Amino acid sequence: MPNRVGTKGQLVIEKPIRDQLGIEPGHFAVQQIAGDHVEIRFYPSGHERSLRGLLAEARNRSVTPEEWHEAKAEAWRTAALVAEAGDRED
After folding, report:
1. Which residues in 49-58 are b (16+ Cβ under 10 Å) and which e?
2. How many domains would you assign to the chain?
3. Nearest-CA neighbor of 24 among 44, 5, 53, 1?
4. 30 in a domain, yes or no?
5. pLDDT tens per residue, the chain (90 residues)?
6. Structure confidence at residue 90 (pLDDT)
7. CA-CA distance, 66 to 72, in Å (whole number)?
8. What residues pair up with 33 in beta bridges, in sequence order?
9. Could you tell me how far CA 55 lies from the centroid of its own chain?
10. How far apart are CA 13 and CA 25, in angstroms?
11. Neighbours of 86 (CB within 10 A)
12. pTM exceeds 0.85 for this model
């Protein structure tokens, strides 16, 4: 169902989607442009203190050294974005 963007650029994420993804109050939303649309990834606030949670998926399956390197790089990028978002909230 389409939602209207508010005057402050806010958008409501529908409850069924939040429930399916496990999004809760306090999660960080990291946004990036992907072609002609926006991708939003949600991370619990605890991830700003540790990369361990962000790397859990790669640790729990067999990955090539290249995939592990990319997973680490993505985790660092995400951690930096989450930290930046937290700074803007203060």
Report:
1. eeeeebbeeb
2. 1
3. 44
4. yes
5. 788 999 999 999 999 999 999 998 888 888 888 899 999 888 877 644 456 666 666 566 666 778 777 777 777 787 777 777 766 655
6. 52
7. 10
8. 38
9. 13
10. 12
11. 12
12. no
**Is residue 10 in some structural domain?**
no
Closest CA to 53 of 61, 64, 45: 45
Rounded distance, CA 88 to CA 82, Å? 10
Instruction: Label residue 7 exposed, middle or buried (CB < 10 Å: 0-12, 13-18, 19+).
Output: exposed
Q: Distance between CA atoms of 43 and 55, rounded to whole angstroms? A: 12
Give domain status of residue 8, yes or no. no
Quote the CA–CA distance of 31 and 43 in Å, as a whole number: 11
Task: Indicate whether 3 belongs to any domain.
Answer: no
* CB-facing half-sphere around the CA of 35: CA atoms within 13 A: 2
* Domain span holding position 66: 15-89
Q: What is the pLDDT of residue 1?
A: 77
